[in-house]
Specification:
membrane; alpha/beta; single chain; six-stranded parallel sheet; Rossmann fold
């Protein structure tokens, strides 16, 4: 081993350590940003080492220049997306990242297999290639469908077309038959057939899944992406790629299990589909059946409360009102009001959506409370301020016989007073009425969250000014 190869291998080891350390730092919201930077630094190091390795291994070849150009184009595109994407579109962006990761891993395996297909291909290479292209192609199309559902280009309701299970089983059979063929006789054409079948299966798998399960789907596809990348690492014999993919796959799998538990649903039941209706028409409960409030009345309750618990939901993200909410909380805190945020694991459209949203508004991390931690505090709260959250606050979950039965919820209805900010009586992704809205302690403030929160801050200032 030359000195250059030794340095490169040590550099890959350092990159792997950065991946592990970065993932560890992401365990806490207080260190998550630092963890992202550490992981990004590790990946940047790995990319630089790969370009260097290719340049020294094949001097004079155009490969390093092509790779460097790809890194430059991808880096610029990523930076522009990160700066311009709205918080409401973050779940779609994550789904697109999953698609790109899975698709890229599959293409790497195809290119390497095509290079080796002229001669004998080992069992190890064939196995990892098949696993890579199947997982990668499924992730690619499945993530595109998920992004389409989140963006509204594909209906958020489950698409339960006739014969879908038969189609799915047929595609699985084609994949298995193609895999057996490849073990017997290497063939790029058969590999392409396997890829097409796997890509079609990704579409069939995600279409029947409703909007209610999107947080689970996103984390599951993220796990698929990591697994595909790890398989690509085995195909290329790249230790850094194997470690990076394995970490993403393992963490995504754990997160998927946590998301499913938070909804009291198994991953299998999520994949079967048919749950939830996505964005749909207004619920059956008439607006006349609820008690309305005004900005001034709500401001009086908030200004003279001792303890306020804020429950953010997707409606907060849709209105891009996180800064107005933070300003209102700061104003109340300045008056001595104890303000906390109650964070449900599946609030929003992706894992950690509310944490990311509030972090953008510089909400102090100690004010964020997870569901199990905050639920005992609701009976002690003078006001629970619900901003755009729906299914995660529905008391119907405590009863059997409905789509949210058994799902752990935030005990909002146990607060002394509940103020709900919503634009209308529209239902959530589960497609059922929220019984909280008709509760005797609940007051509805029908307005856009951004304008309502700004008006509440102005009214509180007038009261105390």
């Amino acid at each position: 081993m030359t000195a250059t190869e030794t340095v490169i291998r040590l550099g890959y080891l350092l990159a792997a350590v950065a991946f592990v350390l970065g993932l560890h730092l992401m365990n806490s919201p207080a260190t998550a940003r630092r963890g992202n930077l550490v992981s990004a630094g590790g990946m940047a190091l790995a990319v630089v080492l790969t370009v260097w390795h290719l340049a020294t291994d094949r001097p004079g070849a155009t490969g390093p220049l092509v790779l460097a150009a790809g890194v430059l184009v991808g880096g610029v595109a990523g930076a522009l997306l990160a700066r311009r994407v709205a918080m409401t579109a973050m779940p779609q962006l994550v789904s697109l990242f999953n698609a790109v990761g899975g698709g890229a891993a599959a293409l790497v395996a195809v290119a390497e297999y095509a290079r080796l297909a002229g001669g004998p291909v080992g069992v190890r290479t064939t196995l990892t290639t098949v696993l890579d292209v199947v997982i990668g192609a499924t992730t690619f199309t499945g993530s595109l469908v998920a992004a389409g559902k989140l963006q509204g280009w594909v209906t958020g309701s489950p698409v339960l077309f006739p014969g879908r299970r038969a189609v799915g089983l047929t595609l699985v059979a084609v994949v298995l038959a193609g895999a057996v063929w490849l073990f017997v006789a290497p063939s790029v054409a058969v590999l392409v057939v396997v890829i097409v079948a796997a890509a079609a299966f990704g579409v069939v798998m995600v279409l029947p899944i409703g909007g209610a399960d999107m947080p689970v789907v996103i984390s599951l596809l993220n796990a698929f992406t990591g697994t595909a990348v790890a398989m690509a690492g085995f195909v290329l014999d790249s230790t850094a790629l194997i470690i990076a993919g394995a970490l993403v796959g393992a963490s995504g799998t754990i997160l998927t299990k946590l998301m499913a538990d938070a909804m009291n649903r198994s991953v299998v039941s999520v994949l079967v589909g048919g749950f939830g209706t996505g964005d749909g028409p207004a619920a059956a409960v008439a607006a006349t059946a609820v008690r309305r409030t005004t900005v001034d009345d709500a401001a009086i309750q908030l200004a003279y409360a001792r303890k306020v618990i804020v429950v953010p939901g997707y409606g907060l993200a849709a209105a891009q009102a996180q800064h107005e909410l933070s300003a209102l909380a700061d104003l109340l805190g300045g008056r001595g009001v104890d303000v906390r945020y109650a964070i449900h694991p599946v609030a929003g459209r992706m894992p950690g959506h509310m944490n990311v949203l509030l972090a953008e508004a510089n909400v102090p991390y100690p004010m964020l409370r997870e569901m199990d931690e905050i639920n005992p505090e609701f009976p002690l709260a003078d006001v629970a301020l619900v901003v755009g959250a729906n299914d995660v606050t529905n008391p119907a979950a405590r009863r059997p016989g409905n789509p949210v039965s058994g799902m752990p919820i935030l005990d909002v209805d146990k607060a002394r007073s509940v103020i709900v900010i919503k634009r209308s009586m529209g239902h959530g992704y589960a497609g059922i009425d929220n019984e909280l809205y008709a509760g005797e302690r609940t007051s509805m403030l029908f307005a856009d969250a951004k304008s309502a929160l700004a008006d509440l801050s102005a009214a509180v200032k007038t009261l105390v000014g």
